[in-house]
Design a protein that fits this description.
single chain; mainly alpha; about 85% helix; about 200 residues
Amino acid sequence: MHGAGVEPGEDRHLRQELRQLDGRRAAAERCRLVSVGLGGGGGGEGGGIAQALRDVQLQVKQLLSQEERLAAQAAAEQEEEAAAAAAAAKRGGGRLAVAPLQAGDEEDEEGSETLGSTSSSGGDPAEEEADGGSAAGMLHAAVALLDEAQALLDDAEDRVVQYARLYRFSQAEYDELSKRLQQVGGWVLEGSAGVAKVVVNT
């Protein structure tokens, strides 16, 4: 066997290395599938969780932009209404000061002011403003969570890539070991046949 260039136990060692390479090849294929699932594999058409997450982020950010624009418009309209009401009250204030108020009229006015104060504190504009701020806050929180998810997803993909580099599969190495094993196996069979022939002849 040494004359044929075969070391003792070389065939067993070659089979072990080939099994290890088979494991590396399986791991490399799984890493490729994970990479495609996470980031789309870098293809032109996109895909994967990362692309889906980017689409969701875009939609939520558009919702937030729309909500902020509507809230700004509502605030501007309320300011205009308040300014118009103040101007009207200023113009009507001079005429009201000319006529003296009677006792009954004074009580009626105080009652109407109290009613107006109550309605303004529990009216729809205040609730809508609060609801608008709450809605924007929820969307801001959603954007922050999606950004965090994107960062975690990128980190997971990087770790999978690093793992794949540790156990990189080489087809050339696999073919070389397979060829060597076939040669060693042939020489082992030839040696066994020669030994058997000697035993029979004796």
